[in-house]
Amino acid sequence: MVRITSSCAASANVSEPTQQRSTKLAPIDELLLFLMHLSVGLPLRDLANRFGIHRTTASRIIATWTHFLYHLLGSVRLWIPKEEVKAHLPPEFSAFPDTQVVLDCTEFFCQTPSSLVLQSEVFSTYKSHTTFKAMIGIAPHSPITFVSALYAGSLSDREIFKLSGITKLLTADTAIMVDKGFLVDNLVPCKVYRPAFLSNRSQMCREDVQQTQSIARLRVHVERCIRRVKENKLFDKVIPLSVCGSIDQLFSVACFLVNYQNGPLVKAWAGK
Questions:
Q1: Residue 168: CB partners within 8 Å, gap ≥ 6?
Q2: Which residue from 20, 103, 210, 224 has the least number of CB within 10 angstroms?
Q3: Spatial distance between the Cα atoms of 253 and 109, rounded to a whole number of angstroms
Q4: Are 28 and 221 in contact (CB under 8 A)?
Q5: 8 Å CB contact between 72 and 66
Q6: CA angle at residue 197 from 144 to 188, to 5 degrees?
Q7: What are the pLDDT digits (tens) for 11-68?
Q8: Alpha helices in 77-186, H assignment, sequence order
């Protein structure tokens, strides 16, 4: 563990070993403090009062554990080989047996920057607010297998898909399942399952309607997974710009921890 000792030390990558603890809290209490900040959304002043420490110390503990868990949990490979995905494929995906990952984007509010240029970059027309945006992917049997970095809320799903680097993980004999906003057919080497567009037609044909309904029923699982991530109350409120330096790692840690939660997304898959 690299312990953050001060803001100057953090910026200069200066650290001290964990054995030389700079706080009076035991490591298990520091972890509890971090989880109370992430999961319950308690502010620094509240945490400092509960644990009997200075507010700055609480901030450094959160920064230390964010950095530590990001590298510890992030060292475990998320992406699952296609053979393993196929071996655990739920029967509900029988019509789409080559699906490797189900993708969707999510947004959460951030503080509005004073700069008009920055405001235009992070303003989301979908949310009518300044936001951070990320892409999450799950395997058909529900574990998170891909987490992108955070991007400005003005970026489209297609642009985030392109920047995320997921195309390097896809092969020609696999497929992805996405929403209508992911117009990525020319970006990937594989098949794309996406709800059909009406285009210039007066109505969809029966096959398109049936496929769209099937994809919508299966895509809801990635939305359930994203809901689990957002159950961390830290993301319920507007993220202040002062934590922009660590919010990317905090979001990734929240996603990593979802894979360690008890219980499947769908009860029928409990034995799979």
A1: none
A2: 20
A3: 18
A4: no
A5: no
A6: 45
A7: 444 444 444 555 689 999 999 999 999 999 999 999 999 999 999 999 999 999 999 9
A8: 82-87, 116-122, 157-164
Classify residue 82 by burial, with Cβ atoms within 10 Å: 0-12, 13-18, 19+: middle
CA distances from 225 to 79, 99, 144, 246, 267 (A): 16, 17, 8, 22, 14
- Look at the alpha carbons of 256, 260, 265, 269 in this order and tell me if their dihedral is positive or negative: positive
Rounded-to-integer distance, Cα 40 and Cα 104, Å: 25
Retrieve residue 167's tokens.
């195309």
Query: Is the CA virtual torsion 188, 190, 191, 195 positive or negative?
Result: negative
Note whether 105 and 157 are within 8 A (CB).
Answer: yes
Contact 135, 157 (CB under 8 A): yes
CATH 3.30.420 in the chain, residue ranges: 82-269
Q: How many CB atoms lie within 10 A of CB 26?
A: 10
**Whole-Å CA distances, 103 to 144, 198, 218:** 10, 22, 11
In this predicted model, what pLDDT tens digit does every residue of 220-269 receive, in sequence order? 899 999 999 999 999 988 998 888 889 999 999 999 999 988 666 665 55
- Cα–Cα distance list, 47 to 37, 67, 164, 240, 242 (Å): 8, 19, 34, 17, 18
Domain spanning 82-269, CATH architecture: 2-Layer Sandwich (3.30)
Closest CA to 22 of 56, 72, 49, 66: 56
